[in-house]
Amino acid sequence: MGMRMDGDKDKLFDILLDSARKVSMGAYDETDSLMELTNTDKYPPMVAELAEAFGMMIVKVESREYNLEQLIQEIKEQNRKLEETLAGSSCWKALRCT
Fold first, then answer.
1. Which is it for the CA torsion 76, 81, 87, 89, positive or negative?
2. Residue 15 DSSP class
3. How far apart are CA 74 and CA 18, in angstroms?
4. Where are the domains of the chain?
5. Residues near 12 by Cβ (< 8 Å), separated by ≥ 6?
6. Measuring CA to CA, which residue among 35, 30, 26, 34 is closest to residue 65?
7. Cα Rg for the chain, rounded, in angstroms?
8. Percentage of the chain modeled with pLDDT above 70
């Protein structure tokens, strides 16, 4: 039996809102209650669909954030190598002194 939407919708939307707040603060691993709402045997289809869509957004945001962090690390490493290479250059030394 599914939940009655009229009596429990505030609770369901509170769970969705709480998950949205956690994700907006970067807490991607605290989504168990959201994933529970995707169970169509227990919850209305509209709520389950919304929870599933929200879960997919979380996965995509987390993936993009991870990729950006990796790119930043690569750029920092490349910058460090470039600075090391230029540090021995007299031209670089002249630029740094001006």
1. negative
2. H
3. 34
4. 5-97
5. 3, 5, 37, 43, 47
6. 26
7. 24
8. 84
20 burial via Cβ count (<10 Å: 0-12, 13-18, 19+): middle
pLDDT of residue 1: 44
Q: How far apart are CA 10 and CA 20, in angstroms?
A: 15
pLDDT of residue 81: 92
Query: Residue 78: pLDDT above 90?
Result: yes
- Nearby residues of 23 by Cβ (< 8 Å), 6 or more positions away: 31, 58, 61
For residue 40 the two structure tokens come to 């169509």
Q: Which two tokens stand for residue 65?
A: 């954030």
State if pTM tops 0.85: no
pLDDT of residue 4 exceeding 70, the answer is no
Using CA atoms, how far apart are residues 28 and 81, in angstroms rounded to an integer? 33
